[in-house]
Write a structure and sequence with these properties.
elongated; mainly alpha; single chain
């Protein structure tokens, strides 16, 4: 507190006359919080000693008045702070608005670059899915062509390894396709893998349809290459293309019972996804760099165990892409535009089975595994 000037009518250092010193000091005290009231009171008492006795009553009257008015003063102070905060908010908004055009222009190049990178990444992923599926079907349909087109019509003959070669080659084909696309797209190569990954592993739903289209396109092109390569053999064995559509696509062992083939596809694909999720789960015991080989062996064992009822497509793209090619190339009894229309079985069955197998793994196994540290 400042010392007062002893001259008559003078002013102290806080700008109060000597006669009004009590009220000034009390009003200064009111600016402190309630927690500082005692300290302010002590200073006020010091002031009382310095003034005439007849002003003591005025001092205490002023204190009482200030205490009564304190809540209202606090309300006014809060209102003032709120008004200041609102003004600062308006000033900030005005500043942001005034620079918004500049900010948009400045960041537009970055946004375009980010959008271009996203599109480039998706294009790379789709190309990887296309090429991976292309390699898969080249080897897969190629081995079936080897077995079917180069026999000698001897009863019981095992041509070029027969069915064992088919199952082994399909498994190796899956492995090669995964090595082609794995680092870029994850090597789905199969809509029955893509959909469960979207459901259970956070794969973007916006990519599901493009992935499926890329996979079907890769399978279609691969089938056309196989037909081109083996065209002389097709002309020699089946010049009218009446009975060789099965080299490219799958057919039921019991055409009158499509439900049997559907069940077979559901079970086979459920096993495929159950084991893919187990092999690739970081919480489980992933086989380091042997993942593609292990998944290829899963395809081999499914083919050996569940391959008879409907040719173990276990992959809608693997079946529909080549089947579409057989329709375009003029194959009869292709199951899509001619003969028994069973094209839907290796589409619906694998999609249902894939979701089922993934759900069994997540709810029956993964939930009990410890989270990775």
């Amino acid at each position: 507190m400042g010392e007062t000037n002893n001259s008559k009518g003078g002013r102290n250092r806080i700008g109060c006359t000597r006669n009004g010193e009590i009220e000034c000091r009390c009003r200064m005290m009111a600016r402190f919080g309630r927690d500082k009231l005692l300290a302010a009171w002590e200073g006020a008492l010091t002031a009382v000693v310095r003034i005439r006795r007849r002003d003591t009553f005025a001092f205490f009257a002023t204190i009482g008045s200030l205490l009564r008015e304190w809540p209202a003063a606090e309300a006014v102070e809060r209102l003032h702070e709120q008004q200041c905060a609102e003004k600062r908010h308006r000033d900030v908004n005005a500043a942001v608005h005034s620079h918004s055009t500049y900010q948009i222009i400045r960041t537009s190049d970055t946004n375009r670059a980010t959008l271009y990178a996203m599109k480039s990444n998706l294009a790379g992923e789709l190309l990887a899915e296309f090429l991976g599926t292309l390699v898969l079907i080249l080897f897969g349909d190629g081995v079936v062509a080897m077995v079917k087109l180069f026999g000698h019509n001897v009863p019981g003959e095992v041509v070029n390894g027969g069915y064992t070669n088919i199952t082994l080659a399909w498994g190796l084909a899956v492995t090669m396709g995964i090595y082609i696309a794995g680092k870029i797209s994850g090597a789905h190569l199969n809509p029955a893998v893509t959909v469960p990954l979207a459901l259970f592993r956070g794969f973007a739903w916006s990519k599901v349809l493009p992935y499926c289209v890329a996979q079907i396109a890769g399978a279609f092109v691969a089938a056309s290459i196989v037909f081109w390569n083996y065209h002389p053999a097709f002309k020699a064995v089946d010049p009218n293309l009446d009975s060789t559509a099965g080299i490219f696509t799958t057919f039921p062992a019991f055409p009158a019972e499509p439900s049997a083939g559907l069940l077979d596809q559901v079970i086979g694909t459920a096993l495929l996804l159950l084991l893919i999720f187990a092999i690739t789960d970081e919480r489980n015991q992933p086989p380091a760099h042997l993942g593609p080989v292990m998944i290829g062996l899963v395809v081999v064992v499914i083919g050996m165990s569940f391959g008879g009822m409907h040719g173990y497509a276990i992959n809608p793209a693997r079946d529909f892409g080549p089947r579409l090619f057989t329709a375009v190339a003029g194959f009869k009894n292709n199951g899509l535009t001619d003969g028994s229309l069973i094209f839907w079985v290796p589409i619906v069955g694998p999609l249902l089975g894939g979701v089922l197998g993934a759900a069994v793994y997540d709810f029956g196994v993964r939930r009990f595994l410890p989270a990775k540290a």
